[in-house]
Amino acid sequence: MRKLTYYVGMSIDGFIAAPDGAYDFYPVSESFLKDFLIGEYPDCLPTHARRHLGVDELENRHFDTMLQGRATYDAALELGITSPYKHLRQYVVSRSIATSPDPDVEILSGDVAAKVRELKREDGLGIYLVGGADLAAQLLEEIDELVLKVYPVVTGSGVPVFSAEFRVFDFALESTRTFDNGTIVLTYSKKR
């Protein structure tokens, strides 16, 4: 069975973005970019970034499907990009977008958790949960793995990793990696 992985960057104090949704304040060193973002998780780079970095031909290592919320998708649309992850099967969860602006992007509404369970039963690589906090909260029961890129910044406020009501979910630490820019990548798997 495939896994749903919430792969996300965050500040030390648990925010994935500024209150306005910006996330361009995270420090990325050359070694972090080469060793981790490109070397380990090239499938999580948007297609336009892969092309810019000259790594568009890299095979997906972890994921063949992605799921993102409407606000996260809006960031791509604002750049004129209707298919931000062309190298993956793309789903956008939205109650406000009725028709997809791109044939490569399927709009989902309704019972998203049921759709995730259906996707998990398929063969293939994993499912990448791009964001955001509301969607991650809706799918907490379905998330099998967390890959948290903890950047060495404190923001004080912003968009939290999860926007959920209090409920405890236990995860086991699988690995820790540190990088020269002070970023720590923590990988957790859900305890069953």
From TrEMBL:
Q: Which Pfam families match?
A: RibD_C
Domain (Bacterial bifunctional deaminase-reductase C-terminal): give its ranges. Answer: 3-184
Name by which UniProt lists this protein: Dihydrofolate reductase family protein
